[in-house]
Design a protein that fits this description.
Layout lengths: L1 H16 L1 H7 L5 H11 L2 H31 L4 H27 L4 H18 L1 H16 L7 E4 L2 E8 L3 E6 L4 E5 L9 E2 L7 E9 L5 H14 L10 E9 L2 E12 L5 H18 L24
Antiparallel strand pairs: 1-2, 1-5, 2-3, 3-4, 6-8, 7-8
């Protein structure tokens, strides 16, 4: 299906290449001269031959793709290599086919060649517009340095380490071990959040929730101790626990927010896991429960008035 669409695109390009001939024909003064110029510019026999060429290329590529798939199934360890070779071969086949179809279908003189060159220049200009924008943005990134290689960055819903900064794109390795390629021009308009900016250590924020009827002071001490005693904590930086009341699933809870620094960004997940396990174990030992809906009962004769209906 992909090959068929590509060959249809080749036929469309052939049709676009006839536009310069029509543009030159506009200089003619009579309809007879227009018709005569079009007849002279188009090789009708070559057009028929081009159709057979396109059909032959389409059939050949179908067999070639099946051959590549069979090789990949037989040699699974080399499947990626075979796919790369197949992509490169198809690319060159498309280029050669386009050149052959143009040569067979159109008589190219100096005027037509000049107009074809101008048309190609405009098309290439539109095609490389984003590429040029990414190139300029890459230069700006290197000058302004909103982040550096090795920084842990959040951008466009992705979060991970910057592994490469190029003139066209930036590569980011996510915590799920996926490589994300981001065009440089995206960084000119979108917001980027950098966690460490050239440093090894980075602040990590962890939230813990307990019920409002629990021992909040003891819970705060447990969270603080878990952060201070973790093997991944960067002790030269402060360890802070902030306590606040928040709405959690439509009822009030006490949130204990731990702010501590991990000694190396690559240990961020290990740091969070270590602290959470320590806190959960200590909460269980001291019977500190999670948030829950509280029901209050008003004793009879307490003097309280019932609420009006």
């Amino acid at each position: 299906m992909k090959t068929r669409k590509t060959l249809i695109l080749i036929a469309a390009i052939l049709g676009q290449c006839l536009v310069p001939a029509l543009a030159l024909a506009q200089d003619a003064t009579t309809d007879e001269e227009v018709v005569s110029y079009i007849k002279q510019s188009i090789r009708w026999g070559g057009v028929v031959t081009s159709l057979f060429v396109i059909l032959g290329v389409w059939i050949t590529l179908r067999f070639f793709n099946n051959f590549i798939e069979n090789l990949g199934d037989q040699f699974t360890t080399r499947r990626m290599l075979f796919q790369k070779i197949g992509t490169i071969v198809q690319f060159f086949v498309y280029i050669i086919t386009i050149a052959a179809v143009l040569a067979l279908s159109i008589r190219i003189d100096n005027k037509v060649l000049a107009l074809l060159g101008g048309t190609a220049a405009v098309a290439i200009g539109f095609a490389v517009r984003d590429l040029v924008a990414s190139f300029i943005a890459g230069v700006m990134i290197m000058i302004d340095q909103p982040f550096q290689v090795g920084d842990r960055v959040a951008f466009g819903g992705e979060y991970g380490d910057i592994t490469a900064i190029g003139l066209r794109s930036v590569r980011l390795q996510t915590l799920s071990d996926n490589t994300v390629t981001i065009p440089n021009n995206r960084f000119l308009t979108d917001i980027t959040s950098c966690g460490n900016y050239g440093a090894l250590d980075m602040q990590v924020v962890m939230d813990f929730y307990v019920g409002v009827d629990q021992d909040v002071m003891k819970a705060r001490d447990i969270v603080t101790e878990a952060g201070l005693t973790s093997r991944y904590v960067h002790l030269p930086k402060p360890v802070v626990v902030l306590v606040s009341q928040v709405m959690q699933d439509n009822y009030i809870a006490v949130r204990l927010r731990l702010k501590a620094y991990v000694l190396d960004t690559k240990y961020e997940n290990a740091f969070e896991t270590d602290v959470h396990l320590r806190v959960m174990h200590a909460f269980e030992d001291y019977h500190i429960g999670p948030p829950a809906i509280l029901h209050r009962t008003i004793a009879a004769g307490s003097g309280s008035e019932p609420l009006p209906a």
